[in-house]
Structures are given as structure tokens and as C-alpha cells.
Amino acid sequence: MKKSFKSWSAMLFAVMMTTTLIAGCSGTKENNASQPPATGNATESSANGEQGALEPLTLNLYSDRAWYSDWTGAGAKRISEKTGISFNVKKPVQDDGDGKDISLMIASNSLPDLMVVDRGNKMLDQLIEGDYLYPLDELIDQYAPNLRKILDEQYGPELLTKFAEQDGHTYKLISGYQTEKYLEQARENAGLAPVWLPQFVVRKDYYDEIGRPDTSSPEKFLAALEQMAEKHPGKIPYLGDKSQHKDDLSWFAPQFGIKPYFVEGDEVKSAIYDPKWKEMLKFGYELAGKGLMTKESFVNTNEVTAQKVAAGDSIVWAYNATAENSTPPKDNPNTQFEILTPFSSYMYPTIPRGWMALVIPKSNKYPERTIKLLEYAASKEGQADFSLGVEGTGAGDFKDLANGSHFYYDSDVANDYFPQGKPTLTTGFNDALNKDWGGAWKQSGLGEPIMLLTNWAVTNTVFWDPSDEKKVAYDQMMAPKMAFFPEFDFKIDSAGELGIIEAKIKTLREDYLTKLVFAQSESEFESLFADMLKKAEGFDIARLEAEYTKQYAELKLKLGNP
Fold this sequence. Notes:
- This protein has 22 helices and 17 strands.
- By secondary structure, it is α/β, with parallel strands linked by helices.
- The strands form 6 sheets. The chain has a 5-stranded mixed beta sheet with strand order 4-3-5-14-6. Strands 8-11-7-12 form a 4-stranded mixed beta sheet, sandwiched between helices.
- It starts with 17 loop residues before the first helix and ends with a helix.
């Protein structure tokens, strides 16, 4: 999975209070798309690398993410020198997914020139419905036709088709959406399966001790766990934390291949009606009944669980593949952790929704230059400038974090996007990242904090390594177990009546989870399960499911799968 910069977002400069933010984005002559200086020209690079002399221009940009850059770093400076465009950035002190800032901007008629906000920002729909935004497809066709070709061929046509509104226009460009093009590239480069996929991690010494039996089914896993527990009665057989075992035994859900929703014919129902969901809970009940899973997995924080694992108190641990690089348990420094073979039914579901959305409000007085800037930003040249940094001549061509070189094109490794070879980090920059990931990215001024539109099939290339035998083996095992369900991208207003029903069902699952897992008998389990379903019906779950079914049919039609 792509690494996030949120870990160091708190280090970014604090911004002014909301009233100041609004003033900074106001539509006055002084603040709306700052006037170009009286002297001096700059060059703007188009998507095909052509240069044209243009007056310097400063656009007002708002992001609802606190980690967004103030556009003052080395990377931003290089892009502004190349394009002639810089940004006056406004952002909240804390992420504002609820769209409070945007709501105030609408009320005060002070929308900025450009917005880069979370795809789920609650005000995006209102911006579209209120006719506050330019249709990007129209701007593309009028001013930057090459951008459509770039998006279709390098990102995937879904960016312009899947996110089109009912009027046929596309108002937002989405970064981080798993298009078919992205999935194709990830599979080809052993990068589809992220290391954070839920796994059962075992101590190698204990697993070796029982002959390393097959664990590819619930029954085989249980038998192996029983054997290890019998040999080490003072240990916790299975240990997780409360964040992993909330409302649906989430660490077990992919092992049983449970989808986000249960489809029965043409109807979409809550997962609680999926026989696999009940089977999973029944398995949890069986583990608990044999003393193999305790209430610690439902009450411990991640930190407490990690401490117990480090001390050597557990046999099997709910974690992921990165555990193989963890420090050995203190009671045996000569062993290590490894992931067990997943159940044959393992399926990790993803609902592709995308990450960040770029929109251009009609308050922007320079739509032509803005869309031409996006044409450059979306191109291979732009993606390299925004996310890869300064190009070098080889692995050893590194000076410092601000000036690079950050990457070079390795001609020995073929790449579908770059005929000159795979973009590869220079040794010095890679070493700096390994030493201080967040700090190194911040000093280099690259990546997410200056993003406009990101193609992860390009930006992830420097981290994809099909020559890494261990990574390839992991990807070969787990990539076929990844499944994508764009037809489940339902929109339910959390503040509306259906959102309230959905919240009640979630709470209901949480309330019944430990009761079911730690039931005293099978008959008590069945009684509790029936009682839970009855209460769900009382919450009018059928009304919620009718909306799921309606949106499911609409999405399938939109995706070309009626």
C-alpha cells in the first residue's frame, strides 16, 4: 500500500483561523488569483514538454487536509519555475472532511481557484449540485484535449466515466482510484498485494516444533493452534487487539472470504445475513470454547498487544506480513515470526472509491491555464516532477534532500510508462527515507503534500521491485486473493434516516459480538444470533437494504455490467 504522509502532518506549519482562511480565499481583486508581477516572464511546460512564455500566476488553492504543503518546498519551487504557476494555499489546522470550511466559503461567496480535498468530503455533492464547479470534461475538450488521452491511456478511462454525474459531466478528478490500468501494472510489478493484509502470524520455533502442519482451513488452523497451546500452556494461544476484532471479527473476515455486503439474487443485504459471516462467528465461538481465544483480543489496545507479543507471551498473533521483520520475542532471540498459510477461502475485498478529489470552482478566472497545468501535472513529465523529484544519472547521483538527485531511470529494468527504464530511487535518497521516512519526504518537498492529480501506477513504480524474490512470492500468494467491488460503492448520508439505521446495525453487531463468541453453549449462540437478527429487523434494516439494492443496480449499469 502506498505510504501516507499523515504520520508527519502534525509537523506542517499551522495555518490561520477559519475567518482568516476565508479572507485569504476571497474573491477580491487582491486575493482572487493574484495579479502577475509587473516584470518577468516564466515558462509553462505542456504535457508533451513544449515550452511557452507565460506571465507568472498565483492561484488560490484550498485543501481540507492539514498535511497539504504551503507550496514553499523545493519540489513546489521547481514546478512553479517550470510552469509559471504557484499557489497561495489555505488549509485547516485539522482535516475537515465534513466540509465546514467549504460551507463557509459558499456562504461568503469566496471559493478559491482550485480545491484538492478528500473524495468523501461532504460538501462535494453540494458544490456540484449548486453549479459552483466547472465541468472538467468541457475544460479538457476546449483547452487541453491531450489531457483526455493521458487520462484514458495512463490512468484509466474510469476517471472520466465512473465519476461522471447524472448530467453526463465530470466535475472532479480522483487520485488513488484502482483503475483496471493500475491493477494491471500492480500485478505485473508484484505490487498488487500490500504487506498490511490481515494475516495470522506464528512463532517459528513453536510452529517448527509441531512439524509445520497445513493451516489452509479453519479446521486445520484450529488443530495446529491446539497442538501448540498444549505444548505451551502458559502462553496466549491467539492474540489480537480490540481494533482488529470490532463488530465483525474483522481479522477473520478475509480468511472466510466475506464480502462487504451479501448479494442474494438481485438483492443486496447486510453482511449479517451472509452464511459465511455466521460461520466466522461460529469459528470464533469454537476457539473461545477451547480456550484458544480470550477476551484480551477484544479489550487490549494495539500497544498492549504489541508489548505482549514482544515479550513472547503469545503463540499466534493477529498482524500482517511486516511481522517477519520484527524483533524476535524476548524469550527466544533465535526465532522469528512468520505468516501462516491463509485459509483457501481467503479473499480481501476492496471497494474502490479513490482518495483525493480535484475540482475547479467557477470563481477561477483562469480556467484555461489551470486545465493546461493539470495536463502537465497528469503527464509522465509532471508525475516525475511532483512525485519522483530531480532526475539523476545513476544510483550514486545524490547531493542532498532538497536538490536530489532523487531518482534515475534504470535502463536495465523495462517499464511500461517510461521507455528509458524503471524509475528507481538513488541510493542516497533511499537511505535517507529508510532513516527518517517522513522527515526525508518533507525536506525533499515531493509527493502527496503537493499533489494535484496522482497516478499511483507511476508513483509506486519506484517501490515496486519485481526482482525481489521474497516480495514476488508474497504477491503470487496474496494477489489472487484480492477482490475489487466497485458495484458496492454505496452513498448513504450518515446524517439521514438511512445513515442512522446503518449506524444502529453497526452498534448492534458490536453489542452482540463478544456475547456470541463467548456464548456458554451452541444453543445459546443460536438464540443470541436469532435475537440479533430480530433486532435488526426492528431497526427497519429492510429499508436500508432496499437502498443498497437500488444503488447496486445503478452502479452495475454504470460500470457496464447490468
